[in-house]
Write the structure tokens for this entry.
Amino acid sequence: MKRRDFLKIATGSAGGVAAIGAAGARSSPTSVAMQEEGNNTTSGNGTADNGTAGNDTAGNGTESQEGGGGEPQTKEVAVGPNGQNVFEPAEVYVKPGDTVKWVWEGPGHNVHATDVPEEASWDVQTEIADPPFEYEHTFEGPTGEYNYVCDPHVNLGMEGVVIVNESGEAPGGGEEGETELHPEEMGVPFQAHFVGIATVLMMIVSLVYTFFVLKYGESQHASAPNKE
């Protein structure tokens, strides 16, 4: 095979795979849209009109409780779990009106508020206690950081903080921070990713073969039939 012929074939193959990838990427969102449209058609068969969505399911507060909805919540902090000199979790987000409950799981600890926002009334210093022992406090505000320590183990870094904000969640959503979304959860069909990966791999393979052909030339056994 001549170098010219090989380049034509390699270029055509890469272009064909790229075209397939583009077609797959265009068609996949369309199929998702069709599925969504079909789901809307199913939901429009009278299920929403018969009062299911408008009755107590939406009005009884069930959804607001699942998403917070302003209802007071209680979040728990373990004190000295597994024999460690830590508060777990060390950082807790709450909204005004929420309660934090500290539960002793290890001996010889206490909760001592050290640095709180101005006008805050939280100035606790519990006794040094062993389990079973609990202490709880409802944070009415103001918003800000409420830092506390364990007096016997402050030098070992046993510190914690309660952060009061309007949402009761960490920036980015949720106490544990923003979670990574799966491609399908971002609205991108998973098939399109396979097509894109295959396209890139084929282009790389074509470029590698082209490089070797251009650098080392044609094989003496790959000449044209009419060439001596």
